[in-house]
């Protein structure tokens, strides 16, 4: 019975979480924790059993293991690829009576990875340019190119296998892997580059298709006739034909893709068969040359290769009925048919030779070294003697086979590299694989190994079988217009011609099918806002708008029209994509994140780094200017995504780098305090929030923003009164309020909210625990309390704590009158009253403020106070010199304050202040009554009349019974109170300084002033606040500054 109940419980659990889409949200959505998919009724049914009563309180957020395993079993990972579109189109044909269950992916390694990779890797370059590359670069140079490119793709495949086997890879293939490994910025940039590479690959395949059609199958179909044209005119006619036919084929292919992807998928195997049969035909031809070399003559004049159309027989004259008759070749080079006609000098001086174009693999020829040509140079056979022209051949000669392009090693790399791309085909189909984590590494590496062997063997076999002049003949003009690789094939050249034609058509269709879906995946991720429109499509999900954009970009490649010019472009984009795949693997390996656990174990960060270096090197080897343009495009996209704020968290490696770098930097900061030259204000801003958890004085963050020229740490902290268990929600709201305000005021930093039983402790906690390790605040910014009579015990304590902790303190008074970030002062002064040395804070703060546009136009003035025994003239000179060495521009003024008698008003202020303090000590009133009493006494003290000789004052006394003053007769409460001389001197200083400051800085935009320290005896806190009020009375904006006990500015470099 216990076993049956467990089984029943497991069956209930297996119905809780239906399959969820992978990675549909900015953060990885989990179908296991906090799932809201199940209804309350289902949840209540889950917990009816009593076997797990101990955990029933947590089951609402932490489901049972049976539920987790059931969700994994039902998890669907079908990609948004062609398979769904094909199914959707089938569904449109008629309504189905019932929905079919989702079939589990059935493709294995062979059909799902190996053959698609083979089909995508083998392509147009193998058939149209491989022989030419061997002829130009030689076997040695071509083998180096092939080995370098194949090594790059093999290393990339190893890195890709590690990433692909580190968890489930949904649709999107390489874009998904890079974006989830390197973050949305890199993912978006590389995703667009991969999309552009795939799109230009489509253009290259279409151009290859048209080249085969117009040159080798039906040359007479050319709209722009090339007969009789020479040099640039013939080249222009060919390119125009490519543009016209290429645009038509592109439109036709786009229509096929739009109408139905299922037709493309069904033809894929046919196209693959064409590729495989063509390659087998080449190998069969090579074997045949060893047994029976074909008769394949090439006509050579001197050492120059002749065009096939320039002769009928390879001879100057022919014997016809015992008569010597001039051949067509004679008529081509001479001005008449007569044997004594005037002929071309080179024709007259050299003999015509017929050589075997395909001597065979046993002939011993080996085109080992390269033979690079300038554009317009005649193809010549090495080793044949010839008598050269004195004037040289005519550049527009229509008699010889000539080079159509200037060739060099790096050009060959750029043209060849697209023939090794396509290694992502398996990872792109990960959703269709039965066991993706097993199939992707095996299938991809096996496909690359197979293709690499084919390419390397082809280089050697072509060089060993075919004559060099035939290899260098790109369009087969010297071999009767045949495709050169076709001349080697058995049983017929048409096997290669037809096979390569269909394979290029199929590859073009695959590119036009895959590129729009890649763009749609990027658009639906929402990381590039202006591409979101391309995420929409037909009702069945077909990416219509993305297909239109893809066709438009593909048309750009068609307009370029030259296969040799388009190939390096897509090489750049693919190389950049592969480079970042290697970077992603290297980063994940070096960071050793706990989630990095690939099933594929044969990887190493050094291999990934080598692959990344090879990709970067190949980019600049192929074409440095294309490489810079491609990197510029990627950088612009990266900065655009960063600027628009990619609010995505994919657990990427860049964030891991940030964490590792932050940890390393924090550990370095722990080694010791920063040097004075590196000191900058790391500000902890203390703010208060109201009952709705909104900041009461938001203007203080404007001032924080204006001080950000120091580029230091900023922490905005506040306190919520209560307990952590009861007031956590309030703290969260306060934190959100702080973040919103920081974003509004453009303050880059961190917010911190503490919950404590009272405001005093909360402020102390923030001062103590703000920051982390060596990255801690060194400056406290707190506004002057609006009603300090109620908070008189808190503010002096903050001052004391900052002094003990050796922290600087900034106290802006009248913070509401400070300018916002949008205001501008067109003139005015920032006045610094430098009374005591505070380490240079008073000098540094105006400099930082003037870096901001609000204060930029304000001029700086520095005032210092001279006593009777000071030499004010010398003080001014010394201060000017000091400022010069500090590199600070400021006007200097020394203010002399002579000793004077204490005024009657000073006595009055001091006496009323002490009277209030005494009353606070003796009165036992309720809190509200005490606040009213304090306020009334304060108002009286500030508005009282001045007396000439107030030597004493009658102060009301309160009896032990606590009776109020009004209940006692006046004569019973009169008493003579002596004045504290210490307080009197302080009040005198405050009044005199205030008088001088008002006289000099009344119109200043901001006054910075040394803040005196609080009394050691806490009983005098009320007096301390009164002194500061008197010191700053009548000034609009005052910033009280108290140094942290260390130098913050230096004259040394």
TrEMBL record:
Residues 27-39 have a biased composition (Polar residues). The chain crosses the membrane at residues 107-128, 140-163, 175-196, 203-224, 244-261, 268-287, 405-425, 445-471, 545-563, 569-590, 602-627. It is a multi-pass membrane protein. It catalyses: K(+)(in) + chloride(in) = K(+)(out) + chloride(out). Residues 82-96 have a biased composition (Basic and acidic residues). Its main location: membrane. Keywords: Cell membrane, Chloride, Glycoprotein, Ion transport, Membrane, Phosphoprotein, Potassium, Potassium transport, Symport, Transmembrane, Transmembrane helix, Transport. One of its GO terms (molecular function) is potassium:chloride symporter activity. This is Solute carrier family 12 member 5b. Residues 1-45, 79-102 are annotated as: Disordered. PANTHER family: SOLUTE CARRIER FAMILY 12 MEMBER 5, SOLUTE CARRIER FAMILY 12, CATION COTRANSPORTERS. Residues 698-790, 825-1053 form the SLC12A transporter C-terminal domain.
């Amino acid at each position: 019975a216990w076993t049956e109940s467990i089984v029943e419980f497991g069956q209930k659990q297996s119905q809780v979480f239906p399959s969820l889409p992978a990675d549909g949200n900015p953060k990885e959505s989990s179908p296991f924790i906090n799932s809201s998919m199940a209804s309350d009724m289902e949840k209540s049914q889950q917990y009816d059993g009593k076997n797990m009563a101990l955990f029933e309180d947590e089951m609402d957020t932490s489901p049972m293991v049976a539920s987790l395993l059931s969700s994994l079993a039902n998890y669907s990972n079908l990609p948004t690829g062609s398979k769904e579109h094909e199914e959707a189109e089938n569904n449109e044909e008629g309504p189905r009576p019932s929905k079919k269950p989702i079939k589990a992916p059935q493709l294995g390694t062979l059909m799902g990875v190996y053959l698609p990779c083979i089909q995508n890797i083998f392509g147009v370059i193998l058939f149209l340019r491989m022989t030419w590359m061997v002829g130009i670069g030689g076997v040695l140079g071509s083998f180096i190119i092939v080995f370098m490119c194949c090594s790059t793709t093999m290393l990339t495949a190893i890195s890709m296998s590690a990433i692909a086997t580190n968890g489930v890879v949904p649709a999107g293939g390489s874009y998904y892997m890079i974006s989830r490994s390197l973050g949305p910025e890199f993912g978006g940039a590389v995703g667009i580059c991969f999309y552009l590479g795939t799109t230009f690959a489509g253009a290259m395949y279409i151009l290859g298709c048209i080249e085969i059609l117009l040159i080798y199958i039906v040359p007479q179909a050319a709209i722009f006739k090339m007969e009789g044209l020479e040099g640039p005119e013939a080249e222009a006619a060919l390119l125009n034909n490519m543009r016209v036919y290429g645009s038509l084929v592109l439109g036709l292919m786009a229509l096929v893709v739009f109408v139905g992807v299922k037709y493309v998928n069904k033809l894929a195997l046919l196209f693959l068969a064409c590729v495989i049969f063509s390659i087998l035909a080449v190998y069969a031809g090579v074997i045949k040359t060893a047994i029976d070399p074909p008769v394949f003559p090439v006509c050579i004049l001197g050492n120059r290769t002749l065009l096939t159309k320039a002769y009928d027989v390879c001879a100057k004259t022919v014997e016809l009925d015992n008569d010597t008759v001039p051949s067509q070749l004679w008529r081509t080079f001479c001005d008449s048919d007569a044997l004594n006609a005037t002929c071309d000098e080179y024709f007259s001086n050299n003999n015509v030779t017929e050589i075997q174009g395909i001597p065979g693999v046993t002939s011993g020829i080996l085109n080992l070294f390269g033979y690079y040509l300038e554009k317009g140079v005649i193809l010549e056979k090495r080793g044949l003697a010839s008598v050269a022209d004195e004037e040289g051949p005519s550049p527009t000669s229509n008699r010889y086979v000539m080079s159509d392009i200037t060739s060099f090693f790096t050009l060959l790399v750029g043209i060849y590299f697209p023939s090794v791309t396509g290694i992502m085909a398996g990872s792109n189909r990960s959703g269709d694989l039965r066991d993706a984590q097993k199939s992707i590494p095996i299938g991809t590496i096996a496909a690359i190994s197979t293709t690499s062997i084919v390419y390397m063997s082809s280089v050697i076999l072509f060089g060993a079988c075919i004559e060099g002049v035939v290899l260098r003949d790109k369009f087969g003009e010297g071999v009767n217009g045949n495709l050169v690789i076709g001349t080697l094939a058995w049983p017929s050249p048409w096997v290669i011609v037809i096979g390569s034609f269909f394979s290029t058509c199929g590859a073009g269709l695959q590119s036009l099918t895959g590129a729009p879906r890649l763009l749609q995946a990027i658009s639906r991720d929402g990381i590039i806002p202006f591409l979101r429109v391309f995420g929409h499509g037909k009702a069945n999900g077909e990416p219509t708008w993305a297909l239109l954009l893809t066709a438009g970009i593909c048309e750009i490649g068609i307009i370029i029209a030259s296969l040799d010019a388009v190939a390096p472009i897509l090489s750049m984009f693919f190389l950049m994509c592969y480079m970042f795949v290697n970077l992603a693997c290297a980063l994940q390996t070096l960071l050793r994140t706990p989630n990095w656990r690939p099933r594929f174990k044969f990887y190493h960060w050094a291999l990934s780094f080598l692959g990344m270096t090879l990709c970067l090197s190949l980019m600049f080897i192929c074409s440095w200017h294309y490489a810079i343009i491609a990197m510029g495009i990627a950088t612009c996209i990266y900065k655009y995504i960063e600027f628009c704020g990619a609010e995505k968290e994919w657990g990427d490696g860049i964030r891991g780098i940030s964490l590792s770098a932050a940890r390393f930097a924090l550990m370095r900061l722990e080694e010791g305090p920063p040097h004075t030259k590196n000191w900058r204000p790391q500000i902890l801003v203390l703010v208060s929030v109201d009952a709705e958890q909104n900041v009461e004085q938001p203007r203080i963050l404007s001032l924080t923003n204006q001080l950000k020229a120091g580029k230091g740490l900023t922490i905005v902290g506040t306190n919520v009164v209560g307990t952590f268990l009861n007031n956590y929600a309030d703290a969260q709201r306060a934190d959100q309020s702080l973040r919103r305000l920081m974003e509004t005021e453009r303050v880059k930093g961190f917010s911190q909210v503490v919950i404590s039983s009272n405001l005093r402790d909360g402020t102390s906690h923030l001062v103590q625990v703000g920051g982390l390790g060596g990255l801690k605040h060194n400056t406290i910014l707190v506004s002057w309390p609006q009603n300090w009579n109620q908070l008189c015990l808190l503010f002096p304590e903050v001052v004391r704590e900052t002094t003990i902790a050796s922290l600087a303190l900034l106290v802006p008074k009248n913070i509401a009158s400070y300018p916002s970030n949008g205001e501008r002062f067109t003139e005015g002064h920032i006045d610094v009253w430098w009374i005591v040395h505070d380490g240079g804070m008073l000098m540094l703060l105006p400099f930082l403020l003037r870096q901001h546009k609000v204060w930029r136009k304000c001029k700086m003035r520095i005032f210092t106070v001279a006593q009777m025994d000071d030499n004010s003239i010398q003080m001014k000179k010394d201060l000017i010199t000091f400022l010069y060495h500090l590199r600070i521009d400021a006007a200097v003024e020394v203010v002399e304050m002579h000793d004077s008698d204490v005024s009657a008003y000073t006595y009055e202020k001091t006496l009323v202040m002490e009277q209030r303090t005494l009353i606070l000590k003796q009165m036992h009133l309720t809190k509200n009554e005490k606040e009213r009493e304090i306020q009334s006494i304060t108002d009286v003290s500030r508005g009282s009349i001045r007396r000439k000789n107030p030597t004493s004052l009658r102060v009301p006394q309160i009896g032990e019974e606590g009776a109020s003053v009004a209940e006692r007769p006046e004569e019973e409460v009169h008493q003579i109170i002596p004045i504290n001389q210490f307080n009197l001197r302080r009040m005198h200083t405050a009044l005199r300084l205030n008088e001088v400051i008002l006289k000099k800085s009344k119109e200043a935009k901001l006054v910075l002033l040394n803040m005196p320290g609080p009394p050691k005896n806490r009983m005098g806190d009320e007096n301390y606040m009164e002194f500061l009020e008197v010191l700053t009375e009548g000034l609009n904006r005052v910033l009280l500054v108290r140094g942290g006990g260390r130098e913050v500015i230096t004259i040394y470099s």
